[in-house]
Amino acid sequence: MSGIPADLQSHLGYWLRMVSNAVSYSFARKVEAEGVTVAEWVFLRMLYDVEAISPSALAARMGMTRGAISKLGDRLVAKELVLRSGDGAGGRGQRLLLSTSARSLVPRLAALADANDADFFGSLSAAERGAMEQLLRKIARDRSLNQPPTE
Length: 151
What we know:
Layout: H1 12-32, H2 38-48, H3 55-62, H4 66-78, E1 82-86, E2 94-98, H5 100-121, H6 126-142
Helix pairs in contact: 1-5, 2-5, 3-4
């Protein structure tokens, strides 16, 4: 070993972080203009596909603690985007579900995500984009990265 540290730009992680930060920052600004954070967007998007879900089940899907889900849920309830209801088993458990306004907001936010992807990855050919996605999915699978990013 020569003792000379490798140049930052010689690391794939450097380039992944550079692109990821730019993509994430751009998307965060877009959803914040709609009144939600990226973490709130992920929460809403996960609820969109289910009728209702328990906070613990949502926490498991998002890879977050029940306390973190509770705080996010509280913020979204305050914004009138999420509703809480009893689960029917004695009324002690609760279920989370989207409000009517959130049901119309999620597709708008998804369109922002699509536009953000197009802004950053539109210069790639279909083959390049497919190869990039395949490689990133392989790395995620090999590292057991299966929780959605919320930051």
